[in-house]
Amino acid sequence: MIDSFIEKDILRRVKITYVLYECRQVKIGELANNMNVSFNTIKKDCHKIASTLENELTSYSISRSQLTFNFKPTTICYDLVRKLYSDSLFLKVCYRCLLADSYTSIAEEEFISVTKVFNLKKKAERYFRQALGSNSNTKIAFENKLKVRYIYLALWMRGIGINELENDPLFLKSEQVAHDLSVLLKNRFSKKSLHYLQYAVFMTLKRNDQLSIDNETINFLKTGIIFNSIKACFSRQGFEIDDENTAFISFVYKNLPYNPENYQLIEVDYQYYRNRLIKRYPPVVELIRNFESAFEMNLLGEIEFEKPLMDLVYTTTLGINEFLLNQYYFTDCKDCVIRDKISKIIRTWLKDKISENITMSESIILQFCHLVMPILKKGEKKKIPIIIVSKDEYSHMLFRKNISKIISENYFFISDEIYYSIDEIPELFFNINCFIVCERCLLNQERKDTLPISINHLTSDLKNISNYIFTCVLTK
User: Fold this and answer.
1) What is the DSSP string of 8-55?
2) Which of 374, 389, 372 is nearest to 423 (CA)?
3) What is each CA distance from 317 to 270, 359, 366, in whole angstroms?
4) What are the beta bridge partners of residue 389?
5) pTM exceeds cut of 0.85
6) In this structure, what DSSP letter does residue 58 have?
7) Residue 434 has pLDDT above 80, yes or no
């Protein structure tokens, strides 16, 4: 949500930096097409990126058609994007408004006009109204303390206002609580995840807010490992927190990647949350069935699909998704159809089963697509051609109609070309995965790469063809 308000040039640079960090070498045309901007805009952005991140680069080149950026081995992508976000005047004004500080001083600090600062404040208010909603007096609902905390997290994770936190003794305590939790739950946090959790813990220690979290959600969380582990870690550091604040940190933790010591713990974690979410909540199973129907494949019970789906459902239904610092991913043009299909399935399900008011940003959809695209693309198998060789058009018509009844159109198609001799078939078809069905009278000798058929033995021949094709497909 917040990304739709951040300055477009800064957001572009963040997206480009994610791609450069992952790929190191990128074609300018691909970026321009994905971001719907010109070549020159991409080049201009990359020169700005190189200038801002020069201390993190070993070398870079911006040629006529290609970008090459080499980062220092110790460089973390999170640090790079946080530097880029720190140039956002919109984010700075948002932070001043949250703190109820004077935002007009930014004009002198950033050498911009008071009019521009005033316009940024109006923009910040629009964001707050969209993120927090309005109260009964039609004013921004700043009394929604839970979502206000999410906004603080969104700003801190983008490097806004963090210098003030480091001098607070509670900030060091919050780092220790976050570290204890990682040890207790055997999670090797990345720097980004550790910061996110630390900021959430710090806010809990610093602010005495009444959080509006319903009892049903809290009772559900109490039956889990994370809720009770958080309580234990706070107690170990001499702090006691109420159930609502424990639930808040549970929301944040559940969004973080689980990086255990071995793969078996990933399996255990998956099965644990699968029992808690999928088996207890039929709407989630219905969502999986919707995907199965759309992509014509079995997905229920597939860990590589269910795990990212469960994370998406958790963070979306708990209302935290729109406030996260998500990594950006690009999809190839050929994958755009799959992306749009995924987006439609999720948005329809949220509207029908959860709430019409839940929104979902581009970055959330792209991140989910990036994780599940490999398994969903497996369902897009190329259809296997079936070639028919017959003595005349009537035989072709008869064989074609009968063969079409025994094959699945999802996996096979019958070629429209009519061949009247084996010799007419292009050599290509003998070197690819296909099936050749030839009228028996046209076969001078048996060939292992052809399936015989005749009108006189049509029933038995169709049975043999069906068994052969089924066996070949099943054993591949």
Assistant:
1) HHHHHHHHHHHHHHHHSEEEHHHHHHHHT--HHHHHHHHHHHHHHTGG
2) 389
3) 19, 10, 18
4) 419, 438
5) no
6) E
7) yes
